Amino acid sequence: MSFSDLLGFTWNGGLDNLFHVSNEVIGSLEFDSIDSETHDWQRDITQNPVENGIPIADHIIEKPRSLTVTGMISNSPITEAEIFSSQFNSVNIEERVAKALATLDDLYHAKILVTIYTRYMIYKDMVITSINIPRTPDIGDAIVFTLQATQLRIVSAQSTQLPKGLGVKKVTDSEGKAGTSNSNDIATRKRAGGMKNNGKASSDKGPIKDGSESKKDFR
After folding, report:
1. In this predicted structure, what is the pLDDT of residue 13?
2. Which residues make beta-bridge pairs with 145?
3. Cα distance between residue 91 and residue 87, in whole Å
4. Residue ranges covered by each domain of the chain
5. Which residues are within 8 A (CB) of 191 and not within 5 positions of it... i.e. 6 or more apart?
6. Where are the alpha helices (DSSP H) in the chain?
7. If you classify domain 6-151 with CATH, what class do you get?
8. Where's the Dit-like phage tail protein N-terminal domain (predicted)?
């Protein structure tokens, strides 16, 4: 006779409004048995093709971790208390399945981050992506469900000060000259200024002073 497996869910108010709830809530589910538990950890290796030889792989990108659990909950579980205690005190276990369904429904509809802990792993910042609960006559009043969850990565935005001369729009001045900066800062105006004409190219010599045409020597 095996002990019951534990799969717990913990969730509370978060900093992000999308996952915020007004009251802190802790939910816990005790499974009669876990049929399968799949921990999915994947990562990609970037590949850059080259003209000759094999592609270059020089970077690793980790994907969010995911967890898939299939388990059963019934109204008459066999727990450790039944095995080691001489007297088993019934605590209204007839509504155990109904409470488990209500907890799963809350997890699905509440747009909050959850912490899922299994026997060997703890996953934080998880989002319930799928809950599948089939009902068949052979399981009676018990429920067998498959739950899928994916780990969410939260990033924070930061602002920085741009160096002088960057982010300045070039406008046309009152004389119609393009490339004039709209900034009063000297460094910015120099950086954002238009192109300057530095004179004719050295190859453009013009006519010879004595009026004769220039001749090319092909010797």
Report:
1. 43
2. 71
3. 13
4. 6-151, 165-195
5. 164, 165, 166, 168, 181
6. 80-84, 96-109, 186-192
7. mainly beta
8. 31-163
In whole angstroms, what is the distance from residue 63 CA to residue 150 CA? 10
Q: What is the pTM of this model?
A: 0.55
Q: What are phi and psi of 19, to 5 degrees?
A: -110, 20
Nearest-5° angle of CA 102, CA 106, CA 107? Answer: 120
Per-residue pLDDT of the chain (219 residues; tens, 9 = 90+): 334 455 666 655 443 333 322 334 545 666 777 788 899 999 988 888 888 888 888 888 889 999 998 888 888 765 554 444 434 444 455 588 888 888 788 878 877 778 887 878 888 888 889 999 998 888 888 888 898 999 988 777 788 887 776 765 655 555 555 555 555 656 655 655 555 555 555 555 555 555 555 555 555
CA pair distance 132, 31, nearest whole angstrom = 15
Q: Phi and psi dihedrals of 191, rounded to 5?
A: -70, -35
119: three-class secondary structure by DSSP: coil
> 68 is written with which tokens?
């898939």
CA 101 and chain centroid, separation:
29
Residue with tokens 């009902």, as numbered in its chain: 135
DSSP for 128-150? Answer: EEEEE----GGGTT-EEEEEEEE
Residue 121, CA distances (Å) to 26, 115, 184 in order? 19, 11, 59
